[in-house]
Amino acid sequence: MGDTNSTSGAKIPNHVAIIMDGNGRWAQSRGLPRLAGHRAGTENLRRIITASVEFGIKYLTIYAFSTENWGRPKDEVQGLMHILEDVIDKELKELHKEGVQLRHIGRLERLGPKLHKKVLNAIELTKENDRLVLNVAFNYGGRDEIVCAIQKMIQAGVKPEEVDIALVDNYLFTSGTPDPDLIIRTSGELRVSNFLIWQSAYSEWYVTPTYWPDFNKEHYRRALDAYAQRDRRFGSLSQNP
Ligand code: FPP
Question: Which residue's CA is the closest to the ligand 1 atom numbered 8?
C-alpha cells in the first residue's frame, strides 16, 4: 500500500489506450476558454505518461485529435495543432531521456509540412527507446484507418483468399502494436467515438466521470485495479473458474 507506484492487482495491462475527454467542460466549469482545458489536459497527459512508465505499462495510446475534430471552430483546431507542436518542442528531449518511443497513428498529410516534419523527426529520434511506446492518435479515425488499410491491400495486389485477421492487422496504422488491453474514457460518455474500432474487439473498458485534466495518478491506479479484477474470456470460457 505504501508504494505509490504499485497497484493492488497483480495484472498490469500491457497496452492502455485513453480517450482524454472533458477538456472543454473542465474549462467551461471554470469560466475559461476551451483551449485552456486542452492546455490543462496536455499538462495532465505529461503526468500520466510518467505514471504509465512507473506502473510498468509498455504501450500507451492517446486520442489527441480525431478525423471528426476538423469540424470544430478554426481557432480550436489551430490551438490543438499548436499544442502538438509545443509538446514536441518542449517535451521531446525529456521524453527521450525517459525512454519513451513516440509513434503516430492517423494521417499526417493534413497537418502542414512543418508539423509533419517535426512528428517524423520525433519518431526517428526515439525509435530505439523501449520503456514505453507512446502512440499519438492525431488526425486519427478508426473507420478511416480501415479504409486506408483496404486501399493499401488493393494497391499491393492482395488476393481475396490471402485476407485474414493477421493480414488486416498488418495494414492498420497500429501494425506491430498489440491490441489495447484496457481503454479508459474520462468524463463519463459511454461511446467508442471511432477509436481503435478494430483493435478494441476484446479490450476492457473503464469509464470515469472525472474530466481529463483532473484524472490523476490515483484515478489511474483505480482504473488499473478495476482491470486487474476483470475475468477476460475473449469469447471463450473463464481460465479462473
Ligand atoms: C476531448 O475533450 C479532447 C480532445 C478533442 C483533445 C485532447 C487533447 C489533449 C488532451 C491535448 C494533448 C494533445 C496532444 C496533441 C499531445 P473535449 O474537447 O471534447 O471536451 P468536452 O467533451 O468537455 O467538450
Answer: 64
